[in-house]
Amino acid sequence: MMKRYALGCYLGGAAAARAGDEMSGPALLLAGPVLTGSPSSGSSLLAGIMAAAAVGGPLFGVVLDRSARPGRLLAAALALYAAGLAAILLGLGRVPFALTVLLAVGAGLLGPALSGGWTSQLPRVAPPPGLPRATALDAMTFSLAALVGPALAGAVAGTAGAPAAVAVSIALIGLALPAAWMLPAPARSALPAPLPGASAALLGASAPLSGASVVADLTAGLRAIVRNRPLARATATSVVSCVGQGALLTCWPPLGAAVLGGADRGALLLSATAASALVAGAVLSRHPRPPRPDTVLLGGTLLLVLAPLLAATGHPAALIAAVLLTGAAEGPQLTALFAIRHREAPERLRGQVFTTGASLKITGFALGAVLAGPLATWSLPGALVVAGGCEAFAVLVFVCLPDPAEADAPFSPPGAV
Asked: Do 406 and 298 meet the contact criterion of CB atoms below 8 Å apart?
């Protein structure tokens, strides 16, 4: 009974924090111009947060791995992130805008705590037999946040004003603090054994690095990702795939305008994508014999090759199919990525593996969005083809980094991820 409560507390806190994070971006985009009078201020704030999140993950992962009470560290990070958003809100229009952007950068350094940092603690909450299902449920909190956050930001901004939307996002992050604070502490008396199915390379990387410097720990975390073939393959594939996802995201609003008659309907396409991902995650979490996560990662990426090409046809039915296919691919793909990280990450470096992976994905996503913006203005079908090409390249990355152990590996039972 206690285990079930612990998992419910974990999922509730993760969902609240991630919904607040997903809500904060659109809320800042709306609040910046309202409070400063500059149309570009909102995007500048969001860029500052995302850029800092891309570089803050590895360092936060080192601190998280070194902490005897990582849950309390996560709670402190969430509190500081919320405080940073509050400082931005209070500073807009009152202090020089450059200082507000610096506040956004400072807050963004803690962004990986809401994604990879939190997920890295899941094995301490869910027992090994229930870890595959818990991983799928954890991935669903991202889809739920992507569905609820932007919609809630728009609704609150429309009724109470854009600053109120930022305040609500701060409150949601604050709701997650108790769940983070109560996360179980790692056992320090003995190093846990690798999870079932972990590759042989993990055994040598799992030794504690007592007395190691921060730089040494950072280097060890990167080595753990690069030298472990399944982990390196999953990380590289997901990062390249995120470039395509960022490009596709940029295309939804103009697609709504070109195919459905209004740019505002692009937001509906985003919601439909998140809903489809949520449904796909729910189906995967209840599967009695889930396939190997490596297979799911490859399958999801293959589907993401097809989705932008369907959307590029310009037919409404094909666009709806592309939206549903995108969500059905992204949800299981994220679940599979988490499962591979849980399976392969050395216990001593688990936080780094997750937060570094989150930072790399943020970087890839932002790069895709930046590249596709001008391209979509010039040629929307061209931008969609580029998005599909990025996903095809991600498939190529997966194929070119084979795992020698897979040829002899048996089918993973439900309790092995």
From this structure: no
Determine contact, residues 293/413, Cβ cutoff 8 Å: no
Task: Give the residues of the chain that fall short of pLDDT 70.
Answer: 1-5, 187-214, 217, 262-267, 288, 403-417
pLDDT of 210:
45
Q: What is the pLDDT of residue 89?
A: 93
User: What pLDDT is recorded for position 199?
Assistant: 46
Give CA–CA dist 153/145, Å, rounded. Answer: 11
Report pLDDT for 368: 86
pTM of the model: 0.81
Q: Over the stretch 190-203, which tens digit does the pLDDT of each residue have?
A: 343 444 444 444 33
